[in-house]
Amino acid sequence: MADLADCLDELAPISDEERTALLALEVETLTFRRGVEIRPALDPENAIFVLKEGCVKSSLALESGERQIIRLHFPGDLLGTAGLGYTEAVDALHAASDVTLARLDRRRFAMLFETHARLAMLLFLASQNQRVVLMDRLCSVGQTSARSRVAALLITTCDRLRLGSDSAGQIKIPFPFTQSEMGQMAGLSAVHVNRVVKSLVQDGIVAWRRESVTVLDLERLRTIAAVPRHSLDKALAWMPWPSPAAETADA
Fold first, then answer.
1. DSSP assigned state of 240
2. pLDDT: is 87 or 234 the higher one?
3. Which member of 10, 43, 54, 127 has the greatest number of CB atoms within 10 A?
4. Phi and psi for 30 in degrees, rounded to 5?
5. Can you tell me the distance from the alpha carbon of 48 to that of 34, in angstroms, rounded to the nearest whole number?
6. Using N-to-C axis directions, what is the helix angle for 117-143 and 179-186, rounded to 10°?
7. Which runs of consecutive H residues, i.e. helices, occur in the chain?
8. What confidence tens digit (pLDDT) does each residue in 138-174 have?
9. pTM
10. Rg over CA atoms, the chain
11. What order of strands is seen across the sheet that includes strand 99-104?
């Protein structure tokens, strides 16, 4: 299972003291079966969570009765923070697979910004990283072909899950989504997604199975996706590092 600290540690090293502070935010662990609504939009409780295991869909309801998937969440992600400045939740959360969540105490979360400024900076950076992902997705949906959009969805999922290749150079991506759901995320009809999937399989770029996709040729898929490669970790020299006292205590 992943923790919020694991996610932030990818941006900059997290000390044991900081990890303890993040774990102290968690007040209860919850599990949900695939397809279950975790929290509806406009929920007055407006809870925030850390995703420990599985995949969660964030979505908005449309006047037509359909749902638009806004974002996919993976282990280590914060859920529900978009609604922190509102009295009600701004989006709905649904379990895309069986999931485990930790609900966070909102007051402790607020106090974290007072007591651990460095963690607050990392949380801010993580939110900006999510913003860049959404920017890339918006650009993909608005300016690229259907084939590029589907490829971009797969590449982004692979990168966010930090998946490595096996001995054969292949990467297996857990992908519990229907082609209709893929269409929502890529701005395509299910029929169009089906055609693109078939073409990627026929070209030997991916192998498609229920619940998973195996990437057979990563570089070709990246070329088709045309997703920008951002190097956030190389631009953090200005960030404060754990204090010498904390490092000594950790040692």
1. P
2. 87
3. 54
4. -125, 145
5. 19
6. 100
7. 4-9, 16-23, 106-115, 117-143, 146-160, 179-186, 190-202, 218-225, 244-250
8. 877 777 899 999 999 999 898 888 888 888 889 999 9
9. 0.83
10. 19
11. 26-32, 99-104, 49-53, 78-79
